[in-house]
Design goal:
The chain is of the alpha/beta class. It has three domains: about 5-140, no CATH class; about 140-245 and about 400-555, Rossmann fold; about 275-385, no CATH class. The protein is built from 14 helices and 22 strands. The protein has a ten-stranded mixed beta sheet with strand order 12-11-17-10-18-19-9-20-21-22. The chain has a six-stranded antiparallel beta barrel with strand order 1-2-5-4-3-6. Strand 14 (about 325-330) and strand 15 (about 330-335) form a beta hairpin. Helix 7 packs antiparallel against helix 8 (about 360-380) and helix 9 packs parallel to helix 11 (about 460-475). The longest helix is centred in the C-terminal third of the chain and has 22 residues, at about 410-435. The radius of gyration is 29 Å and the shape is elongated. The chain starts with 19 loop residues before the first strand and ends in a 26-residue tail after the last strand.
């Protein structure tokens, strides 16, 4: 419903009485964008309450004004000194207390921006009036983004998430307190189960990089700690309180001859991932070994591109084409160490190498040093063993609805390599397909490592591509980091939704959080786990949202035991 229904026709918002009256003193003058309310003695208004009033115009027309309470203060009237409060309590001074709530206007219908008339009654908004105040009534497709403190659903417009009018979500907050990853998982659950995707939900995919512990390796297991209160919160939003139903789990292969997954407490259902030497060369993955942010004037990237072109040619010419190995300079490379040695031989000008083109010898040597440094950390992920079915160890992000790629045990160099290789392949496949649907959601924490504010890197290029062109290809980034001020500004600027959990006080004052009101900046340092502040395009003020406890296990100890003796055979 796009039209606005006059408040007089909304029967589901009847009140026992007004919450207060619009103030009109010189100190509390009302404006078209904000006003103050003297709260009634028998009522109270608190932060985040949604209010509504009907203000008359001189010609008799009435406008509906909606807003959100963003500050509340209480005063003693009739006192001058701080110590007068004791005299007032003792009954010596004749005073009375007053509670005043400040309201930021969110919507005016019709759009005649005049100050509300002082003395006008102000009501708390519920039902259709609340939907109008927060623009929920105009959202063709709504996604539950959480609950208000009063337990009412906070919706977001799917058109700003699926690429129709915008895309991407950015989440900031202190590690371990802000519950950034938990909120990202809740959003995915709401998208897949809330009905916003309709019939497309079955074909929609998500790629999640597990960067800390084993938190995301149990998404397919119900949480034993989920209680009835939390189930009710899910039900309020129209969501099932259940684990993710379609999940593929990938962990890096362990070092050694056998490519078995290197994980901790979760072994069942986890596939070990790796790449062949031929894939590494043919698909231009060398660049991701140099994914640390460099000065844009650095020539190392030029050398890497030149070597990549030579490796791709070698992969095309190496026979047989089904082999996992490649032949370089007449030498068959059977493992990553041998590949690095041959790259050095073909690149180092001191050994007669020519692959670096006209790059200065110092730049070539810097390239080779970094390549050598990466080899111990990445070598076990790039293999040349033809005896194994290597295709079964390739990350297939289209196999299930949710694909979890575990990287938490890897060195930072290897993490960057995996993230870069997976996103590059996915984005290229989406480009080749040329269609925005079905959507792909990419969840990446520690975004500041992969798209830092300063410098240049191949992964940063991929993420910028996703941020700037992803919406047209149906690729949506849900990125998270402790500090948005350390992330490439263009990545953050392209996010339609900004979410913050608990923030460091100094960080909250940075320009990247300009969407927060002064009161919201102060509150961000007090937020508890499970509480976030949400800013979305259609609503001019940030909203406090809460989300329920995960219905899926986040560690082995939370996995709910099944009482069905045949449950483990269901999927065989």
């Amino acid at each position: 419903m796009n039209g606005h229904t006059p408040i007089s026709n909304l029967k589901d918002i009847t009140e026992t009485g007004p919450a207060g009256l619009v103030l009109g003193t010189s100190a509390e003058a009302s404006t078209p964008l904000s006003f103050s309310v003297l709260v009634a003695d028998d009522r109270y208004l608190q932060l985040d309450d949604v209010v509504h009033l009907r203000s008359p115009l001189p010609d008799g027309e009435v406008i509906d004004v909606y807003g959100v309470v963003d500050e509340v203060r209480a005063t003693h009237e009739g006192v001058s000194f701080d110590s007068d409060v004791r005299l007032a309590i003792d009954g010596i001074l004749p005073v009375q207390h007053a509670v005043v709530a400040h309201v930021s206007v969110t919507r005016v219908e019709p759009e005649i921006f005049v100050p509300p008339v002082p003395g006008t009654e102000v009501h708390q908004a519920h039902g259709a009036a609340r939907d109008a105040a927060l623009f929920f009534d105009g959202m063709q497709t709504r996604v539950p983004f959480g609950l208000s403190r009063a337990g009412e659903t906070i919706f977001a417009n799917m058109e700003f998430l699926d690429g129709t009018r915008g895309a991407h979500v950015n989440i900031s907050g202190i590690s371990g307190i802000a519950t950034k990853t938990s909120y990202a998982m809740f959003l995915l659950h709401a998208l897949f189960e809330g009905g916003a995707l309709g019939v497309e939900a079955a074909n929609t995919r998500s790629i999640i990089f597990n960067v800390k512990g084993e938190d995301l390796l149990f998404l397919d297991k119900p949480n034993a700690r989920l209680d009835d209160t939390q189930r009710t919160r899910y039900a309020t939003m129209g969501l099932p309180a259940q684990a993710f139903g379609s999940v593929a789990l990938y962990a890096p292969v362990a070092r050694g001859a056998q490519p078995i997954p290197d994980t901790g407490s979760r072994l069942e259902g986890v596939t070990g991932y790796c790449w062949t030497l031929r894939e590494f060369c043919a698909d231009h993955y060398l660049r991701f070994l140099f994914a640390e942010a460099d000065d844009e004037r650095s020539q190392i990237a030029y050398v890497a591109q030149s070597v990549e072109a030579q490796l791709a040619m070698a992969a095309r010419l190496s026979l047989p084409v089904t082999s996992a190995t490649v032949e370089i300079g007449g030498v068959r490379c059977n493992d990553f160490r041998e590949l690095v040695e041959q790259i050095a031989a073909m690149t180092d000008p001191d050994q007669g190498g020519t692959w670096a083109g006209r790059a200065a010898p110092g730049t070539v040597h810097a390239f080779l040093r970094r390549l050598e440094a990466a080899a111990p950390h990445v070598g076990h992920l790039v293999r040349g063993d033809d005896s194994e079915d290597m295709a079964s160890h390739r990350i297939d992000w289209q196999r299930e609805q949710v694909t979890v790629v575990d990287i938490h045990r890897l060195h930072d160099r290897a993490k960057r390599f995996v993230v870069g290789a997976v996103l590059k392949r996915m984005f290229e496949e989406k480009e080749t397909r040329g269609a925005a649907r079905p959507l792909v959601f990419v969840v990446l924490d520690e975004l500041n490592k992969y798209a830092p504010r300063e410098g240049h890197s191949p992964i940063k290029d991929v993420l910028l591509d996703i941020a700037e062109r992803g919406r047209s290809l149906g690729v949506v980034l849900i990125g998270a980091q402790q500090t948005a001020s350390e992330v490439e500004p263009r990545v953050v600027a392209n996010c339609a939704f900004r979410v913050v959990g608990r923030l460091d006080t100094a960080e909250a004052q940075r320009n990247e959080y300009g969407f927060l009101t002064p009161a919201a900046r102060a509150r961000a340092s007090l937020l508890k786990p499970g509480t976030m502040i949400l800013h979305q395009p259609e609503i001019p003020v940030p909203l406090l949202v809460q989300f329920p406890f995960p219905a899926w296990a986040t560690r082995a100890s939370e996995v709910a035991a099944t009482t069905d003796p045949f449950a483990r055979f269901e999927n065989r």
